[in-house]
Design goal:
185 residues; alpha+beta; Ribosomal Protein S8, Chain: A, domain 1; four-stranded mixed beta sheet; 4 helices; 26% helix; 11% strand
Length: 185
């Protein structure tokens, strides 16, 4: 087995390094060395894929999806103590996954358009084990957080957490929505 330091750089790696080296300003009195000529190893006779073109160094890409953030401590405290409540509630009990997903998406988009900032999504706690016929229970409790992380809802969902006991505990989620002007395209 070859050691990593004995391995020759591929054409793609050399091209990437040359691109990086062009974007760096050397210290005063120094120059950037030219990259070594490409020497393909004899065992690599198969054609290699062409390296994708890299963006110019001045172009900074925005992240495609806004990051999720937890609810603020004061907001959670106010919700637990009953000083604040969710602006809207949706109950997904008894729905199949496809029905629940469609209703959840429609509900969140509608509430976002209407300016709601905090909503409650009730999934139910489910039960341990499986039902007769092998169908799993508590599926919505498990998949709704996954749906809230998907790209179609991330532009409007700021974050989510389990609800306080007075709002359903682990069988419900507080979902924080972005302001309409904050929505990421």
């Amino acid at each position: 087995m070859r050691k990593r330091r004995d391995r020759a750089l591929s054409e793609e790696e050399i091209a990437v390094w040359a691109h990086v080296a062009r974007s760096v300003k050397p210290f005063s009195g120094r120059t950037i060395p030219e990259p070594a000529p490409i020497v393909s190893p004899p065992e690599a006779e198969a054609p290699q894929a062409v390296a994708p073109s890299l963006p110019p160094p001045s172009v900074v890409r925005k992240p495609a999806l806004a990051p999720l953030v937890p609810l603020e401590r004061r907001t959670l405290q106010a919700l637990r103590r009953g000083r604040q409540g969710p602006e809207a509630v949706i109950d997904l009990h008894g729905l199949r996954q496809d029905e629940a997903h469609d209703r959840l998406r429609a509900f969140l988009h509608r509430e976002h358009r209407e300016g709601a900032r905090l909503v409650l999504v009730i999934t139910g706690k489910g039960a341990a084990g499986t039902m007769f016929g092998g169908e799993e229970r508590g599926v919505l409790k498990r998949v709704v957080p996954h749906w809230l992380r998907l790209p179609d809802l991330r532009p409007i969902v700021m974050g989510f957490e389990d609800a306080a006991l007075n709002h359903g505990g682990t069988g419900a989620l507080y979902v924080r929505l972005r302001r309409a002007k904050e929505a990421v395209p």
